[in-house]
Amino acid sequence: MAKRIALILALATLGGAAPLCAHAQGAPSNQGNPAPDSLGADWGPQQDAARAGVKQGRYVPLLKVIAEIRRRTPGRQLDAGLEQSGGRAVYRVRWATTDGRRIDYIVDAETGAILSAN
After folding, report:
1. Over residues 86-95, mean pLDDT
2. Any idea what the CATH number is for the domain that residue 61 is in?
3. CA 3 to CA 16: how far, in whole Å?
């Protein structure tokens, strides 16, 4: 019983020291600083522009675009965003197929037409 208690205490002590060891080894610390945005700095304004476009009737809702891609290619959405390409608004939809391939769909945001799939 005493050995179990000693082991538990030793593990608890090591667990508490792990963050200190990581910091001492030069691991980055985000203490007080927000983590960098993995979606890109402009994802918030993109989302706002897409919402406004749909609300004003200029853009096809992204859910409708996703449904069409899912009908065409079974799989799941990895991410999506509104971009400008050739002077027009397009949705870029990254898609994972059921057999493990990744496809980037470019879809006209105004018509919902799939422009490319690579």
Report:
1. 95
2. 3.10.450.40
3. 20
